[in-house]
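A quick aside before the break. I want you to see a complete sequence-to-structure record at least once, exactly as it would be stored in a machine-readable document. Don't worry about memorizing anything.
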Amino acid sequence: MNKKVIIIGTIVTSILIGIVFVYLVFRDKPTTPIGGNVPSTTSDQQPYPSRTLSGEPPIYIPTITLAPKDGKVVLYDVELDDFTPLITKTPDSKIGTIKESFAYKLEYREDTGYFYINFSDVPSENEINQAESDLLQTLGIDQEDACNQSIEVLIPNKNNPSVKDPYSLSFCFFEGDGR
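That is the input. The structure line, written in tokens, reads:
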């Protein structure tokens, strides 16, 4: 009789585990991510990969439109000083230089709306801070607004200087950032 009870208990437990598994797999998925609401989106919005000061990435943003007005442009819902007259680029390039120093270039990629701080050599902490400050001053934004832009700091790889490793700004926190 003990064997029958064990077998029946095993069968009942297996069935219950199967029911729970099926429920978890086929139930409706929540549309709101853990930690916040997803803003309503329209067809003119796209995923946004940047970071915030708290480390939470924004979910969606409007597509890129730069229409200078009164010395300002709006990019990703943030008002910036109009940097577009500063851009120099070759006709075939999508990336233009906004500003250049001996250690780095401040660059903008028009088709993605990305900004780059592109270092020519492995920078010191002071050079990184100076470049970040220079970009914020050029764009007329604070650190929080900068974290809501798509900005990559490109630093030559120590083992292979011809390869540049991308990092976020030093004051923006993003899980998995290698710096």
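Two observations worth writing down. The chain has a mean pLDDT of 75. The longest helix spans residues 2-26. We'll return to this after the break.
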